[in-house]
Structures are given as structure tokens and as C-alpha cells.
Design brief:
- By secondary structure, the protein is an all-alpha fold.
- The protein has 2 domains: about 120 residues; about 50 residues.
- It is about 90% helix and about 0% strand.
- It contains 4 helices and no strands.
- Helix 2 runs antiparallel to helix 3 and helix 3 runs antiparallel to helix 4.
- It is rod-shaped, with a radius of gyration of 38 Å.
Length: about 200
């Protein structure tokens, strides 16, 4: 026989004992009192007193049932809220993976830019060793402009990469805080269930 889950235990308790406050016992007492009230001879005053007691017991059962329904609705809303949060986290994780992949591509591009710049620097040194000519000067000017553009591109790539790293760090921190909150909620629910069990055994 498989292990009984916490949800099944709670469901059985609610079916048997209302909200765990002894509703089954109240109903049994109410039924016995009603039968006794119908069959027992007595004065009208005694019958009225017993009638009032039965109404009081019935009101307690109705109150407990209403409270149980409110708790049930609240739990349903909490579950829906957790499902939305979980879906949002999954979407954020997927987005983070996509951003990481994009950052890797930008890193590879930055490496290629650096390599090209080193090659351009080496080429400029070689050109400078030759006698000055008008065409050579024009080529050097063009190379210098290209190097400046590549430098700006590299700076932009570095800035975007740093921003992505910070965003990913914030996302991970948020996920960890949410996981801790969920674990604390689960622990609190388990503690509440453990506190209700001794009260039921005492009755």
C-alpha cells in the first residue's frame, strides 16, 4: 500500500471532522438530542431549553463549515497565485538563457574585434617602416578610423555584457528568495497541522 500524502490526510479529516474542531461529534450529539427531544416526555420549558441547545449546536456546525469553506477558497487562490509565480519564473529563466546565449555571441564578436585590432596594429607598424607616400597616409587614416569604430563597438559590447550579468544576478536572487518563501510557507503549514493533531486526540 502506497504512502498516504498530506493532502489525502487533510481531505479525510475535513470529510470526517469538519475543520478539525469536533464537528462529527457535535452532529452525533445533535442527532441523539433531537431523537431524545422528540421521544422524551417533559414539560414545555424543558423541551424549549433542549430545543435552544440543539439550535446552538447546529449554529456551531454551520459556522465551522463556513470557516472551512473560506479556508478552502483561500487555499485555492494561493495555489493559483503560486502557479502564476512559477510560470513567471520559468519565463524569466528562459529569457535569462536567451540573454546568456546572446552575451556569449557578443563575447565572441569582441574577441574577433580584438584580434583584428592586433592585426591592424601590426600592419600599421609594417607600413610605418616604409617611406612615406600619399597613398600610404590615406590607408593609415582609414585604418585609424576603423580602429576607433571597432574600439567604440567593443566598449558598447562590454557595457551590454556587464548589464546582462547584473540582470541575471538580480534574477537569480529573486528566484532564491521566492524558493525560501515557498519553503517557509510549507514549513508553517506543516507546523499548523502538527498543532491541530494533539487537539483532535484530546477530544
Amino acid at each position: 500500500m502506497g504512502a498516504v500524502t498530506d493532502d489525502e490526510v487533510i481531505r479525510k479529516r475535513l470529510l470526517i471532522d469538519g475543520d478539525g474542531a469536533g464537528d462529527d461529534r457535535r452532529i452525533n450529539v445533535l442527532l441523539k438530542s433531537f431523537t431524545k427531544w422528540c421521544n422524551a416526555p417533559g414539560t414545555p420549558e424543558e423541551g424549549f431549553t433542549q430545543y435552544q441547545r440543539m439550535l446552538s449546536t447546529l449554529a456551531q456546525c454551520e459556522f465551522s463549515m463556513g470557516k472551512t469553506l473560506m479556508v478552502y477558497d483561500m487555499n485555492l487562490r494561493e495555489m493559483e497565485n503560486y502557479e502564476k509565480i512559477y510560470t513567471n519564473i520559468e519565463q524569466n529563466i528562459t529569457s535569462a538563457h536567451e540573454k546568456i546565449a546572446e552575451c556569449k555571441k557578443e563575447i565572441q564578436r569582441a574577441k574577433r574585434i580584438r584580434k583584428n585590432r592586433q592585426e591592424y596594429d601590426a600592419l600599421a607598424k609594417v607600413i610605418q617602416q616604409h617611406p612615406d607616400r600619399h597613398e600610404t597616409l590615406k590607408q593609415l587614416e582609414a585604418l585609424d578610423k576603423e580602429l576607433q569604430q571597432l574600439s567604440h563597438i567593443k566598449e558598447n559590447v562590454d557595457a551590454k555584457l556587464e548589464l546582462r550579468k547584473k540582470q541575471f544576478h538580480v534574477l537569480l536572487s529573486t528566484i532564491q528568495e521566492l524558493q525560501q518563501t515557498l519553503e517557509n510557507d510549507e514549513k508553517s503549514d506543516n507546523d499548523d497541522n502538527n498543532q491541530e493533531s494533539p487537539a483532535e486526540n484530546g477530544e
